[in-house]
Amino acid sequence: MRLASLLSSLIFSSICTAQIQPLIHTYLGDEQRNYYGNIAPTKLTVKWKTHLGSGYTMLGQKKKIWSGAGWTGQPLVISENNELFLIQPTLSHYLRKIRASNGAIIWSTNLGDVIKGTPTFVTTSNNDPEKRFLIISGSRRGVHCDFMSDPAYSLHGVSYLTGKRLWQHNTVRTQSNSRDVDASGIMVAGKFCIPTENGKLTYLDPNPSKAKSNKYTGIPEPKVYKQYSLFTQIDLQTYHNELSCESSPTVYKGTVYTAAGAGTVYGHKPGLFRGKKWNFKTGGDLNGSMPLTNDKHLLLGIEKQFIPGQGGVMKIKPKAKQGKAEWFYPLPNKQWYEWQGGLVGSPAVNHRTAGKISTSRTSGDLACFAGVDGTLTLINHKKLSPNKLVWGPMKRKQYSSPLVLDRVKLPQGTISTPLFIDNKIIIGYDNGMDLYQVTQDQKLQLLDRFSGPMFDATPTVWNGRIYAASKNGYLYCLSE
């Protein structure tokens, strides 16, 4: 019987491997953070909407009710038996598997607090299909967690097939004022790598069979290989306890690049584990993730907080000694809720799909970003504005600035990240969503506008459909 059971499990595992294919498997597609889907529509017509619910969380001593999904909140796209499914994080505490064709909810798993970030799909070495295909999702620290004394189980391993929670990770208390997890991790050299809001970069084993059961909770905790600090004691003088890391790491040539909240981009080489290998200090509050460009640079968004100059977007050459900035584009100082200006979301690039979908012959050297002031900017990230220098975020050095092709003012400010697919740009904001086309003369042409819902979350596009979650409590499917 034992041998028969083992053979059955192995056969099921091989079948599942062939039938389950992640298409968008982490935030912004993959470890390069620059893939947003395959085909974008030309209209924003609602095909269906699904209610995601509401949940409460604790902000200090205050109880807040949030609905739907917020920043970053992007759904994953998984092909299973040639049918598409979404994995959608929600502010109602539930991680949900949803049928993409009609919005039907397949399973829901309560993670104990609101889920702000985007999960990651991983395939482990486990032979049991339930444990082989895993969704790893962060959350806030837990609504019943005492920040100072309790464990904060804010990272979770969930079975893709059944929705069962298989392990949970305690984000330990540090000098940071947060123990949440908003970032989306990635597999690197056989280990799962993720920044957490206690200011740590953690490498762990995602395999549920390697996790050890906690005698108090009964839920296993994964094996942790190594943790690196993403702040220094000197940072405390400027940032005090606002040291959380919310961005998702970008991998280039085996090095993990992380934009830390305390104003530094770190580069770590997994497998050596001898501490940080590279760092580049920019200042500012670094919230967004860094897409890798087609000339192997990183585009970094910088928020205004903690710097004397302006926030904006910087193009960085990784691996350069002590870092090197190719250019800087400042964004206006403008108060928007708790933000003071600059960029909270991530820049987007189009080279993964440019010229591969339509006959538009759109350049693959384009990038776009939307500041908290509500301006969508289109640039050529390889070209510079002639005879133009701008002050950097710390106002200590001047930089070249990229060639601006067009700018449009959105109806409201935004912290959302745009999607850039071939010649189409999709951007959400506080009272709607816009769909733009880059024309042959490289200008932004509005194709359609969907007004009303607040879209802080990053949408996902696949096969001409946009899947976008709103803070009004619903997940929308928008298409022709």
pLDDT averaged over residues: 94
Sheet of most strands:
5 strands, antiparallel
Q: CATH topology, what is it called?
A: Methylamine Dehydrogenase, Chain H
User: Please, what is the oligomeric state?
Assistant: single chain
List keywords for this structure.
5-stranded antiparallel sheet, globular, 480 residues, mainly beta, 3 helices
What does this structure look like?
The strands form eleven sheets. The protein has a five-stranded antiparallel sheet with strand order 1-5-6-7-8. A four-stranded antiparallel sheet has the order 2-38-37-36, with no helix packed on it. The chain contains three helices and 38 strands. The protein has one domain (2-479): Methylamine Dehydrogenase, Chain H (7 Propeller), CATH 2.130.10.10. It is mostly beta strands.
Task: Outline the fold blueprint.
Elements lengths: L1 H18 E5 L20 E7 L2 E6 L2 E6 L8 E5 L2 E7 L4 E6 L5 E6 L9 E4 L5 H4 E6 L14 E7 L5 E6 L15 E3 L2 E6 L3 E5 L7 E2 L6 E2 L2 E6 L5 H5 L10 E3 L2 E5 L4 E5 L9 E4 L16 E5 L9 E6 L6 E7 L2 E4 L2 E3 L6 E2 L16 E5 L4 E17 L6 E12 L9 E3 L2 E6 L2 E7 L5 E8 L8 E3 L2 E5 L4 E6 L1
